[in-house]
Each structure stands twice: as C-alpha cells, then as structure tokens.
Amino acid sequence: MFRGFYTxxxxxxxxxxxxEILTNNMSNVNTPGYKxxxxxxxxxxxxxxxRIDETSIPVENKLNLPFEPFVGSLNTGVYLQETMPNFRxxxxxxxxxxTDLALQGESVFFTVQNEAGETRYTRNGNFTIDLEGxxxxxxxxxxxxxxxxRIQLTxxxxxxxxxxxxxxxxxxVAQIGVAYAEDPNALIKxxxxxxxxxxAALPQAFGAEGAAxxxxxxxxxxxxxxxxxxxxxxxxxxxxxxxxxxxxxAYDRSMEKAANEIGRVT
Length: 266
Fold this sequence. Notes:
Layout: H1 2-27, E1 37-43, E2 47-50, E3 70-74, E4 78-85, E5 92-94, E6 101-104, E7 108-113, E8 119-122, E9 127-129, E10 135-137, E11 142-143, E12 159-160, E13 165-168, E14 171-175, E15 178-180, E16 188-191, E17 194-196, E18 214-217, E19 219-221, H2 227-262
Antiparallel strand pairs: 1-4, 2-3, 5-19, 6-18, 7-8, 7-11, 7-15, 8-17, 9-10, 12-13, 13-14, 16-17
Helix pairs in contact: 1-2
C-alpha cells in the first residue's frame, strides 16, 4: 500500500518540475535568442514481486507448487530524467537598430565577458553601447572580438557584415567573436541567456569545419518557444498532476479506513 504513495508522489513531483520548466519557456517567449528547454520522463526500474519461502497455495489441501510463485511486476514511479535546450534556429525579425545582431546558423554563439572576466556564450544579440563606448549585452556584459578583447566604438553609426567585421568611419574596428560548439548539448545554462562549458573554451567559428553561419545587423533571433504547444503541454502536465493527486487521496482514505475500521478492536 505504501508503495502506491511513493508511485503517485513521484508522478506529482515529476509533473510539477515539468510545469516549472514549461512556465519558464512561456515567460521567455519574447526573449531574443532564447532556446526553449525540453524534458524527458523516465520510469524507475520495475520490481518483480514473488512469494519467498512459500511453495504451497494457502488453501485447505495445501496444494504444492513445483516452483516459487511470482506475484507480478510493480511500477515504482517516474522521474524527470533530463532537461535539454532546443538549439534549432529561431525566426529572424528586423528591428532597425544597428546594435541588434542575429546569428543565422545552429551551434554558433556570440562570446561575451561576465563580471568575473570569464567567457560566456549567448544567442541573444540585443546589444547596446555603454557610456564608455563598449558594445555590451542588455545586462551589461562586454561583447568580445575574435581575440577575446572588448569592442569599443565612438557611436552607433557602424556596420557589421555577415562575418562579423565591424566597420566605423570607413575603417575596420574589430571582428565580433563567434564560437562554435560541435556538441551544443555539452553547454550548461546559467540564466539570462548565457551558457558556459566545462574545460577548454569553445573554438572560434571562423574557418571551423561544419560552422556555417551568418550575422545579420538590425535583426534579432526569436525564441524557439512555441506558445500554443507550450500551453497545451502545461495543461497536460497539470491534468497528470491532478490525476496523481486524486490517486494519492484515494490511498490516504484507504489507509485511514484500514487503521480506523478494519484494525479496530471491538
């Protein structure tokens, strides 16, 4: 009986976590370059129940059995196995702002520098120019060039070609750093549209085998969140949570009846 509690509870926990992930995806439906998280559920290993040290059927004649009788299998619940971002290409939309940049091509990322001076990766090209003239993200992280240095400009009157070469007043100022991830699933989400990787930094995408990409100025890449599909999945997760909740309530009532009525001494 208690195993039923654990099975229902594990289903509720898994659906609650799935709902939280879907809610986060929905809240970022308009975030440039956001890659929606996908989840996968997995069942815990099933248990095979059998009667131990018993080779007879408990009837009046005690019928003997030539083998140990198996009761059957028991499912032990489910859990959220893993969360993986959907790295497919998002739609591009024109903004008219020279500081907005969009990457076209999968497995490539802008390189930025965080507060600790470490390199991070992002698909969000909603950039701006700070008071010192540096090209930064909306949260104030410095955009890096191919040498890992900050990019400083004198105004927003600059152009960026498809390979990230920044030109201002007729002279090339820098080339925007674009990293290539052969296996994007190795990247770790940090929040605020940033990714990091354990170990060595990602190589530059320029000249890398399999790194086909282009940069579009005055464009932003849209989120990969499908609002309609996400709403449907949220309703499905909620109903699954509700069904497990009803099962848990039924078990609770059964245990209450067993304790207060069946086990009562009269």
